[in-house]
Amino acid sequence: MKGYDTASYAATRLNETVIRKGVEPILVNSCTDSFKGIKVQYQYIVSGINDEDYLHNLNLDPVPLGYVNFDGKAIYLTRMPMRQDWKQGLRDRNITTADGFNNPLPYHVIANTIIGKFPTMQSCLERLNSSGLVTAMAFNRDFCIERDGNLKYKSLFDIGSINMNNANINIDDRFSWVREAFEECMENAA
């Protein structure tokens, strides 16, 4: 792999970070040299199964972040630039929230966001209407619904509202710039 000539160098950049095998998030445990290249020992975040593969077969692109459904809330995660230790993958030290949630989230909680697995908007509405413990739910990396029907985009903008009974959506004219992204999200969910 370009940029990683030795396993010891790869280890300094990747050990104890989250990267991906395809779309599945994995936690890198170690890197070793082998005759065919750098071998990476890792654990699948979702299943906990340990495995290994060659570095060139792994996805080193930044893992996608966004909303995470956790503990009855929709928490928006972003990557915080961090150059102190020169690690490449995601780790709890370079994750921050836009919502003021200060506790580090376990990687298995973030896994569905990385994979892109979210409940449907309808199931979010049902949970919000039926459970007093749920205050907000995300149905996409970028969008969530709050209990009062408020529709949020990337935790920064209240872009409109959703009727909690019939799911009618109203996006405020001031946020027409996000309407296309919302409509694309809804088409992909169908």
Report on this structure:
It contains 4 helices and 12 strands. By secondary structure, it is α+β, with helices and mostly antiparallel strands. It folds into 3 domains: 51 residues, SH3 type barrels; 49 residues, no CATH class; 69 residues, no CATH class. The strands form 3 sheets. Strands 8-9-10-11-12 form a 5-stranded antiparallel β-sheet, with helices on one face. Strands 1-2-3-4 form a 4-stranded antiparallel β-sheet. Strands 5-6-7 form a 3-stranded antiparallel β-sheet, covered by helices on one side. The two termini are 38 Å apart. The mean pLDDT is 90.
Question: Concise description?
Answer:
The chain has 4 helices and 12 strands; from the N terminus they run H-E-E-E-E-E-E-E-H-H-E-E-E-E-E-H.
Question: What are the SSEs and their pairings?
Answer:
Blueprint: H1 7-14, E1 18-21, E2 24-34, E3 37-44, E4 50-54, E5 67-70, E6 73-79, E7 95-97, H2 107-115, H3 121-130, E8 136-138, E9 143-146, E10 150-153, E11 157-162, E12 169-171, H4 176-189
Antiparallel strand pairs: 1-2, 2-3, 3-4, 5-6, 6-7, 8-9, 9-10, 10-11, 11-12
